[in-house]
Amino acid sequence: MEPRAHHVLIGLFTVVVFAAALGFALWLNQSSSDEEMHDYVVIFNEAVTGLTPGSVVQYSGIKVGDVQSLSLDKNDPRKVRAAIRVSASTPLRRDTRARLSITSITGAALIQLHGGTPHSPKLKGEDGQPAEIVADPSPLSRLMSNGEDLVLTVTRLLNRANDLFSDTNIEHINHTLANIEQTTASIASQREELRTALQQMSSASREAAELMRNANSLLSQQGRDAMDNAQRTLASLERSSTLIEHLLNDNSAAINGGMQGLGELAPAISELRETLGNLNSFSRRLEEDPAGYLLRNDSIKEFQP
Fold it and tell me: 184: exposed, middle or buried (C-beta count within 10 Å: 0-12, 13-18, 19+)?
């Protein structure tokens, strides 16, 4: 009996020591965890689809904590309060922001913390309450909330694509392509004729340009000749007028004595002045547009002295 009692005592002692050590380790771990973690509340103004207790909390892509619980705001059910526990070494500031995100591999939802300038005060709660972080609008949340509309839109696009590529439309497209092919083949077969026509058009354009240059040269030469003749005529008439004025001045006494001679001379002077006016008008028109004036159908009346 005695050896059996010793074995029982040894076994009982071993169990008690193991349980005490395990309890101490758990207590120490719990105390250490409580000292190294801080609690915060992230407030979302939108749905947090995919986010659950235990979801990861990251700061600039590094895991710093977990989501503890999710609840609706008592005063505004449109808001969601996510209680998170973050490592005490995480430098959260008053201007730190949060948003709902997803992991690139598994696609699980998570809370992504970002921002926070070094000179901003540390984020601390008041009256023993966890500090609050207001989340930014998340593209992921908008995508999930509008997912149904997006699916409907994609479905309509697929239906329209199916209608576009129906058998009837494909047949029409084939006919159109066949017509285009026939047209290009016809043009290719008439390549030489088209080249000849283009060469003829080019030659005709060069001949037309040469004709215009010759016409301009001819009109310019004739215009200059006519201008020179007109100037010579005007100079001659001016000399004649000057001579007549000298004659009148030299014979003023005889003219005053004979009214009959003056009456016969006055019409000639008037006609001479009219002729000079016509020549001046003709000269001005030649100066302004010699080519247009020379090519008119109206012929220039010959001067009759």
Answer: exposed
Which pLDDT band, with edges at 50, 70 and 90, does 301 fall under? very low
Q: Cα–Cα distance between 294 and 300 in angstroms, integer? A: 9
Q: Are residues 83 and 37 in contact, defined by beta-carbon separation less than 8 angstroms?
A: no
- Which sign, positive or negative, has the C-alpha torsion 154, 157, 161, 162? positive
**52 backbone dihedrals φ, ψ, rounded to 5°:** -135, 160
3-class secondary structure, 240: helix
Torsion angle defined by CA atoms of residues 235, 238, 244 and 250, in that order, rounded to the nearest 10 degrees: -100
pLDDT score recorded for residue 202: 79
Closest residue by Cα to residue 133 from 211, 78, 81: 81
Q: Which two tokens stand for residue 141?
A: 């949340």
What's the pLDDT band for 84 if we cut at 50, 70, 90? very high
Residue % of the chain over a pLDDT of 70: 63
Q: How many structural domains compose the chain?
A: 3
What's phi and psi for 143, nearest 5 deg? -65, -40
Shared domain check, 55 and 124: yes
106 within 8 A of 55, measured Cβ to Cβ: no
Question: What residues have CB less than 8 Å from 43, skipping those under 6 apart?
Answer: 73, 79, 80, 81, 82, 132, 133, 134, 135
Q: Check whether residue 154 and residue 133 sit in a common domain.
A: no
Asked if residue 83 and residue 168 are part of one domain, the reply reads: no
One domain, residues 133 and 153: no
SS3 87: strand
Q: In angstroms, what CA-CA distances link 33 with 83, 92, 273?
A: 17, 18, 126
What count of other Cβ atoms lies within 10 Å of the Cβ of residue 113?
24
**Weakest-pLDDT range from 104-108, 112-116, 211-215:** 104-108
